[in-house]
Write a structure and sequence with these properties.
Length: 276
């Protein structure tokens, strides 16, 4: 049995999450985004493995990079873990990039698939047309895109294994000259980040984590979200404008957001800032 505390390199973060999720049953994993009104941990595990089977059926091969350009934490979780469960490598696309920059990233990493959602779908489709991407998959309806729900009828796929030095994530970071360059994260590196967060963040199953939309190049954002899920927290996806409201509604205990996001003071909120 794989546990959240498994030593680095024993399993991918997706294998670890899907191993512990079923036993948590209906305990809320995701709130907001495509998970409305809420997605329990058992349902999260089933959805990720079903989406992985759908991605594989549509041609995703082990170690293929897949673009992830989504506007909320729930979509990000489902996309990234489904891609990784199928053996692929999520390549998060940072918010605020231009269409040529997104197309350049997708072409550079060789992505043939891109996962997106409204209100980013139009930009995603425009970037796909200028890259090697042939399939755009969207949470919700978007013209000329495949709906994420269409992935879920192909059975389920157990999460793929990987070697510690294989890629777990392929973000692109802004360089001093203004250009984007790959900043690959191996499974070993991601596991080490999660191990450090055990002491630094110490999120647990009693926590309700308010998560702003994906921020920065995705490296620290991914690690914080995965740390929260591995330890049974509820992740609430919200826009930057809704964070203060959701704090009151959901009684949040922690916040993951870019350093530029301002939220009304709350004694119970521990803030984890992601570089924007």
């Amino acid at each position: 049995m794989v546990s959240p505390e498994s030593p680095a390199g024993d399993a991918t973060v997706t294998q670890r999450l899907l191993a512990v999720a079923p036993a948590r049953g209906e305990h809320r994993a995701l709130v907001g985004g495509p998970a409305e009104p809420a997605c329990g941990y058992a349902d999260l595990a089933v959805t990720v493995q079903a989406a992985a089977a759908g991605l594989a059926w549509r041609g995703l091969q082990p170690r293929d990079a897949v673009g992830v350009y989504v506007p909320d934490a729930a979509s990000y979780v489902l996309a990234a873990h489904a891609i990784r469960a199928a053996g692929g490598v999520p390549s998060p696309v940072a918010a605020g990039l231009t269409v040529p920059e997104i197309a350049g990233q997708l072409a550079d990493c060789g992505a043939r698939m891109l996962l997106t959602a409204a209100p980013l779908a139009d930009v995603a489709l425009a970037a796909a047309d200028r890259s090697w991407v042939r399939q755009v998959i969207s949470f919700g309806e978007a013209p000329d895109a495949i709906q994420f729900s269409a992935l879920l009828g192909m059975g389920t796929l157990p999460p793929a294994a990987a070697r510690p030095h294989d890629l777990a994530l392929l973000p692109y970071a802004r360089q001093p000259d203004g250009m984007l360059a790959p900043a690959p994260v191996s499974h070993r590196h991601l596991a080490d980040q999660l191990h450090r967060l055990e002491a630094e963040a110490a999120i647990c199953d009693k926590d309700v984590v308010l998560a702003a939309p994906p921020a920065g190049d995705g490296r620290s954002y991914t690690a914080l979200i995965d740390h929260a899920l591995l330890h049974g927290a509820t992740v609430v996806a919200a826009s930057a404008e809704e964070l203060a409201t959701d704090d009151d509604v959901h009684q949040g205990t922690a916040l993951i957001a870019s350093g530029s996001v301002a939220v009304g003071a709350s004694d119970r909120l521990r803030v984890f800032a992601v570089a924007s």
